Amino acid sequence: MATLVIKTAAELIDLDLEDRWRRRRAARDTEVSRYILRRFLDEGGPIPVEHIVAAFPHEQASAVHDALVALDDEDLIRVRQGKVDIAYPFAAPPTAFAVRVPGGNERYTCCAIDALGIAPMIGQGVQIRSQCHHCEVPLTFPATPQGPGPEASGVMVWFGKRVDERSKVFDTL
Q1: What is the C-alpha to C-alpha distance for residues 74 and 68, in angstroms, rounded to an integer?
Q2: Mean pLDDT, to the nearest integer, of 95-116?
Q3: Domains annotated on the chain, with CATH
Q4: What would you report as the CA-atom Rg of the chain, rounded to the nearest whole angstrom?
Q5: Any residues with CB less than 8 A from the CB of 57 and at least 6 apart, and which?
Q6: pTM: predicted TM-score of the whole model, two decimal places
Q7: Per residue in 140-165, is it b (16+ CB within 10 Å) or e — as a string?
Q8: pLDDT tens-digit map of 117-164
Q9: If you ran DSSP here, which 8-state letter would residue 75 be given?
């Protein structure tokens, strides 16, 4: 006969995961992080690291570089060849998920969930463009901070499980 083990929610919590999410939230709540996200929203990316450092003349360059390293370590940005080319949820390289933001500019996101999160993030409506990854039918629909519009009726988002949860978000597409 098998033994039934009953645990409380507190006993089931993955404390390492909780700590990682706490660090990620703290890292995102910095001037450097907000500046990068605003630049991606307003101008797109990639953003040269030296432009980010120059945007903080009141800070020592080493402190800004340390902040960028922390953001990269927490998988909130990706620095490649001296440029931030990923600032979660934004991607500088074209992806299958495009979001037309107010003002008509198009921004790419790392995944479908990121595309859906842009409207609540900026507090304004957006237009999402992608395609069905199965049949390649184009998908275009509006989303507001409250969610996608009725044009998205029947559209489904599929979630997969990463093999390695520490991997970079964009590298897993």
Answers
A1: 10
A2: 94
A3: 14-85 (1.10.10), 91-161 (3.15.10.60)
A4: 19
A5: none
A6: 0.79
A7: ebebeeeebeeebeeeeeeeeeeeee
A8: 999 999 999 999 998 878 888 999 999 999 998 888 888 877 666 555
A9: T
